[in-house]
Amino acid sequence: MMRAATTLALMLACSVALADLPDHRPVPGGVAVVDLGPAGSNRPDATFQDRPVAVREHDGRWKAVVGIGLDATPGEASVRSGGDAFAFEITDRDYAEQRITLDDDEQVSPGEETLKRIRREQEEIHAARDTFSDGTPETMALTLPAEGRFSSPFGLRRYFNDQPRNPHSGLDIANETGTPIAAPLGGEVVETGDYFFNGKTVFVDHGNGFVTMYCHLDEIQVSTGDRVARGDTLGTIGATGRVTGPHLHWTVYLNGQAVDPLLFVEGEDESYNEANGQDG
């Protein structure tokens, strides 16, 4: 626990020095950084699978920064910009398995009335997730939003009461209820809500399809439309929604795809594995 907390403190202090762009990690749940050519006066538009993607100037070049979904099939892929295709290769990545036992069967196999609620909520959640505003984030380097123990890594293949469910789309940070959650980068709060699975939740748009989500909060301390700066309090860790204990579920979205949050934080996933004694 102490080693993990020390690693987290170091990452919080150092991650602002992370390079402007994440590393090129073209795997399911990863990020592809694709060169589009020399930077000119006008930033080009680019798409991946018919969705707009972030484009940033870096070292005098335009770079498309593409989120790759956890369900992506390894193989050749391409970004389209200005009528041209810019190819890259998606390689495979194996994720570990996690089995969770819940006492409340409704949390595993919801009834019809609950399913109606979930469908309504999904529309709101997907709209926030898919936000693509014109603003360009000052950087793509993130600080960790909360102190605590990394309890569940991104990408786990999950089973609830032995029933397969969607892979884990974020990083879980466990700590006591009431622990502050801070914005890892400036942006605008585009949605808040209290959802069946996610509990009390905040979405922050950082611009250009770069969106972060914070779930299972005890208290939400911002409102839709608020502008936040790096370090501003968004709320506190809690145990709302489908949980087994108090923690923050933190998701990073690029072009609507959940990607590994630690690709944007100093130390990447190697620091998580080292802090938790894992080897993969």
TrEMBL record:
Q: What is this protein called?
A: Murein DD-endopeptidase MepM and murein hydrolase activator NlpD, contain LysM domain
Source domain of life = Bacteria
Signal peptide (residue range) = 1-19
Q: Does the keyword Chloroplast belong to this entry?
A: no
- What Gene Ontology terms describe what this protein does at the molecular function level? metalloendopeptidase activity
| Record keywords, A-Z | Hydrolase, Signal
Q: Which residues form the M23ase beta-sheet core domain?
A: 167-261
Boundaries of every Peptidase family M23 N-terminal domain copy = 24-82
